[in-house]
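Homework help board

Subject: predicted structure for assignment chain

Our instructor gave us this sequence and asked us to write out the predicted structure in token form, then describe one feature. I got the tokens but I'm not sure how to describe them. Can anyone check?
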Amino acid sequence: FGEWKSALRSSVGFCGCELRQLPDFSVNVTQDRFSLGVCEIPLTQSRKNQSQEKATNAEKKLMKGALGSLSWRATQTAPWLAATVSHLQGCGDQTVVNDLMETNKLIRTQCHYSHLGLKFPTGIRNPIMVTFTDASWATRRDLSSQGGMITIICDKQLLDGCDSPFCVVSYNSRKLHRVARSSTSAEVQGCGNALDHHEFLKNLLIEMGNPGGIDLSNPDKELQGLPSVLICDAKNLYDAVTHVETSGLQLEEKRTAVECLAIRNRTKHAGVKLRWVDSDQELADGLTKMHVYDQLLRALQLN
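My token output:
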């Protein structure tokens, strides 16, 4: 951190981030100066008119550099940028001029919200860990699917439909490793990945609260001692995991059915409740699609 100083009196700079502590001891982390320093890719009007023409090697290099800068901000303080950055980074050799224009659009948008970062409030009285998971089927350039998740710590009252301050613990948006045959297949694959990450974070929190270590001979007992929630917006996934009792879970794809059974087993033994919400309340929705970030922006602004 360089020179040691109080974040209550002035901002502390670290790796392009500014950390500020408010009088109530909550912490804001932003990247205002870094955001405003990201430059657009220079394009003439005549070049913009050639939107479906292939990008030159020089243009691809500029786009790669710009997306690298946006990726840094996305991973540090701006989860709402992550999905669009990931999609654009996946263009590869198929990059066209329109992709350069989309990158410039994202640069302008993130400059507009340069002041917005992550807040770590102090008003959480009954904390619980919640992970939102979502997937978008065959939306990438190569027809692979995009998975997204975001984990927060919030007050238990959120689960009753009440407002609650929250801390963002972790998030990601990335290409799903396996090609999905259907929307359900993509949702289940993304949910399985999110559950793995959720369990890891639970273990981390439990270990932080137990300096003597955790009982590795019975890790599930430790996990059950910290109730948590996994939230999806795929109703067929939710029904298959929580309601259907047949071995195939009434799913045509057997690989997907097996993965649903694995999710059911781990949620039961790891003390994780699966909840369903509609898409309007699904925070991870903005972590799977390009330029769909209004919901995440609103949540971060209101926190």
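Reply (TA_rk): Your tokens look well-formed. For the description, you could write something like this. The CA atoms of residues 1 and 14 lie 6 Å apart. That's the kind of observation they're looking for.
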